[in-house]
């Protein structure tokens, strides 16, 4: 019997994304065993370790501060890093220097420069990597790829999408939740709509259609001022938006498939407004994905309705938890796993850079 992968988890506090979704999906997989946690303070680290020790049925070592401590633990094979994007570099570099395989949340660094450094260090030490781009594990995305690969709609001609990141989510545009404000208003934090919403979708696109060849983009700030609100919706302050909340691009994949996308941020989710309209046209048929439920444009977290040649295709959705669990399962397979890696993250950052450059200079950019 193969011994489980011994995991050190950075950013696993008693509450939040890592505690509620990421760690549980990892630890339900018997091929992993949590052996250590690391947080920002001794109090939170101790509280997390006690909670995880009780749930795991064995001692979990607490660390805090620099991740060099958890990375140096001989009882840790693999380090999962789940912290906000501005902290990715400081958290991951000690892990890479220690020669440990790793998981890092998307966007895997604030920018291409940081992601490139991660990739170069990982390759230099022969490390295995996984990036939190779970969209490719969605049941609907897998079904779309299966239909395309089977040839049921013939040679693929184009893919077009209109996506909405609604005001009610409190991320970008007219209204920003206080919890998101620290990174939303900092264009260098790697947390803009282009980085996060479009970045996640770019991984799905390239997973299905391959690498992009060229693109032309436009971008605008239609909501120059945002209201920062608390959990009850009370306005705390106003601030200037400095990153685009409406972005569009057209281009082509190296396969010849044409692509056109329009993303809208901060628009209200009024009744009947579709949050996702995505069509894939083949010579012999078409695929349509659409939904008006909140956050439907985030195909990485919610499965939209899927239609093949106008007929609804029933897909057994596992939801976000299922997508995350599938990612961990793929990594545990070793070289055969189909999870996103730091190299995939680097490619997405390069496309994001191309979109930003094209929008700024008003020209076609070749990738």
Name its key features:
alpha/beta, Rossmann fold, Dihydrodipicolinate Reductase, domain 2, 6-stranded parallel sheet, 33% helix, globular, Gfo/Idh/MocA_oxidoreduct, NAD-binding Rossmann fold oxidoreductase, nucleotide binding, Gal80p-like_C
Q: Quick recap of the structure?
A:
This is NAD-binding Rossmann fold oxidoreductase. With about 375 residues, this protein is an alpha/beta fold.
Molecular structure report:
InterPro entries: Gal80p-like_C (IPR055080), Gfo/Idh/MocA-like_OxRdtase_N (IPR000683), Gfo/Idh/MocA_oxidoreduct (IPR051317), NAD(P)-bd_dom_sf (IPR036291). This is NAD-binding Rossmann fold oxidoreductase. GO terms for molecular function: nucleotide binding. Residues 140-290 form the Gal80p-like C-terminal domain. The protein has 367 residues and is of the alpha/beta class. The protein has two domains: 5-127, 3-Layer(aba) Sandwich (Rossmann fold); 135-366, Dihydrodipicolinate Reductase, domain 2 (2-Layer Sandwich), CATH 3.30.360.10. It contains ten helices and 18 strands. The strands form three sheets. A nine-stranded mixed beta sheet has the order 17-16-15-14-7-13-12-9-18. The chain has a six-stranded parallel beta sheet with strand order 3-2-1-4-5-6, with helices on both faces. α4 packs parallel to α5, α5 packs antiparallel against α10 and α8 (194-209) packs across α10 (342-361). It is globular, with a radius of gyration of 21 Å. 43% of the residues are buried.
